[in-house]
Amino acid sequence: MDFKLTEEQQLLKKNIGDFAREELAPMVREIDEKGGFSWEVWRKLASLGIPGLAAPEEYGGEGVESLLTQTMVVEELARHDFSSAANVVSNWSIMHVLTVGNEEQKERYLKPLSTGESVGAFAQTEPDAGSDVVALRTSARLEDGYYIINGDKCFVTQAGEADFTIVMARTSNEKGANGISALLVDKDAPGLILGQKEDKMGYRGSTTRQVSFSDCRVPASNLLGEEGKGLKTAMKMLTGGRVLTAAQALGQAQAALDASVKHAKERVQFGKPIGSFQLIQGMIADMAIQIESARLLTYYAAWLKDNDQPFISYASMAKTLATDTAMKVAVDAVQIYGGYGFMRDYPVESIMRNVKITQIYEGTNQIQRLIIARDLLDERASFRDMYGQSKA
């Protein structure tokens, strides 16, 4: 097995790392304290073509289809700025769903998204339908050439900033994933109601709100893909997002390890740098072992996707291992820093707050374990009912 990256991948990884360290890292503390999406940061990312890296060239993107390449880009961004990395992944995920749209929809929505002129939002989670996605209650009935949407969505990233939202709504009474469609809702659609901005623990460089729909009218032409197939299409196309979530966690875990090594060399206790004590050495060694293990699995999952191999279970494995590892590494980093690790003046405090969300979004790690187990036990019917996917 060849573990060597291509020259293009090595150069891209270096350039992204240098850019994130020099241009984004100095802004992280201020944005974290203020909270909310930063258009200034987004324009910086757009100057390098990062928002549209995964989009087709004909729609203003860079046409980088390789999930492995995308994974390395996200990891390097997250190493210096978690929120930017997570916002980029959200943007790419929305673009992937938009590729099932018709030509007019791609021109109208995909192009400005690819060039960084706009951002979108994806509204699926509901107060009573989180992990149980097929239980969503938001409805959309077709009436005189319009879909009339009613319901509530929560935890909608970039709501209030987005020019449009992809809304998952039930368009028929059929049970399960069947009957759920994807609708494009413009920000000025009548009946779209924005809730207050959520004050989050981490991932504070984004805007998160509840969104409600009260007889919200959207043209029937705003149906994205086939009616009744929206959720299945989205879940299938967003599987790669689990690998990219693993990359976000890896970037932050690496940052925590880097900070821990630096602190262990500089912090003196009992007349010696604390890195000379075997207990600290053991913690640092374990952190490195766990990060490298998670990185190899994450890269392998991406490689499988790039080579048209079955990868759904591996995406879930990578997401679970990398995010659990990042959480443990972050907690250990705070412990190595001692009292300083609890202070916002030091980097490991924000890392611990950020990585927690990676164990929750893109499917909780409990759901990922369920996917893995059902695949191993060959419960194909249950697997398809939940996610509308074959094992491949």
Task: Describe the model.
With 392 residues, the chain is α+β, with helices and mostly antiparallel strands. The chain folds into 3 domains: 7-115, Orthogonal Bundle (Butyryl-Coa Dehydrogenase, subunit A, domain 1), CATH 1.10.540.10; 120-226, Butyryl-CoA Dehydrogenase, subunit A, domain 2 (Beta Barrel); 239-387, Butyryl-CoA Dehydrogenase, subunit A, domain 3, CATH 1.20.140.10. 51% of the residues lie in helices and 15% in strands. It is built from 12 helices and 10 strands. The protein has helices at 7-34, 39-47, 67-80, 82-98, 103-115, 230-237, 240-266, 278-306, 312-337, 347-355, 365-376, 380-387, and strands at residues 120-123, 139-143, 146-157, 164-170, 180-186, 192-197, 208-219, 223-224, 268-269, 272-273. It has a 4-stranded mixed beta sheet. Strands 2-3-7-6 form a 4-stranded antiparallel beta sheet, with no helix packed on it. It has a two-stranded antiparallel sheet with strand order 9-10. The longest helix is centred in the last third of the chain and has 29 residues, at 278-306. It is globular, with a radius of gyration of 21 Å. It starts with 6 loop residues before the first helix and ends in a 5-residue tail after the last helix. Residues 381-392 have low confidence and may be disordered.
Topology (elements, then pairings):
Elements (H helix, E strand, L loop, with lengths): L6 H28 L4 H9 L19 H14 L1 H17 L4 H13 L4 E4 L15 E5 L2 E12 L6 E7 L9 E7 L5 E6 L10 E12 L3 E2 L5 H8 L2 H27 L1 E2 L2 E2 L4 H29 L5 H26 L9 H9 L9 H12 L3 H8 L5
Parallel strand pairs: 1-4
Antiparallel strand pairs: 2-3, 3-7, 4-5, 5-8, 6-7, 9-10
